[in-house]
Amino acid sequence: MSNHLATTDLVAARLRMRLDRDDLPGTAAQLLMSQRPRRGWKPGVFPKECRQAAVLVLTYPLAGGPGVVLTQRRHDLPDHAGQVSLPGGEVEAGESLVAAALREAHEEIGIESASVHVLGALTPLHVPISNFVLHPIVGVMDHRPAMRPEEREVARILEPRIAELADPERQGLGTVQGKASSLVPYFLIDDLRVWGATAMVLAEFLSALDLAPDPWSETAQEQ
Predict the structure, then answer these.
(1) 189 or 76: whose pLDDT is higher?
(2) Per the CATH hierarchy, to which homologous superfamily does domain 3-42+51-208 belong?
(3) What's the rounded Cα separation, in Å, for the pair 7 and 152?
């Protein structure tokens, strides 16, 4: 395990240094986990009619090293059924991005907002399919939170270690068939593939820790 992943305090210190300098990995890091070709999306462009959403990228101590929390959506939901995402949702009128991320994390999985120390924000990301601009808020806790899934929305809570996300053996490429075929990079967490906007946010998070993913390398194997 890399020395700066040994404890949550070290991870938080590395993230705080990067976020305080406003020296974010940015769009280049997000593109490491973006499908190719990526249609209907221009890096750094946010259409005026977009809605605003915030997600919480929360790290905390786990046995085996610091981890993050993800959720799998229920399979019977009308939108994004079964997909893995970061806790979050639409920003309400008059609400700050931080407040929205913390509120949604509490509503979805019971995270107590007062226990989260917010470090800053990663680069916003436009998600064409939902027409949201996604704002990733980075937070840390000094203990593993008590969590409970909101049964109407969340099927499962996932807690991958950061070292697992950074493991090349857990990064792969798959094919999605639509109007045209695309290669889609993903993280393999348990039996689930984490791809799309969630993977792009995690790519920048890892890059801020000098752990940039590389599913496109010749050594990456499709699972």
Answers:
(1) 189
(2) Nucleoside Triphosphate Pyrophosphohydrolase (3.90.79.10)
(3) 34
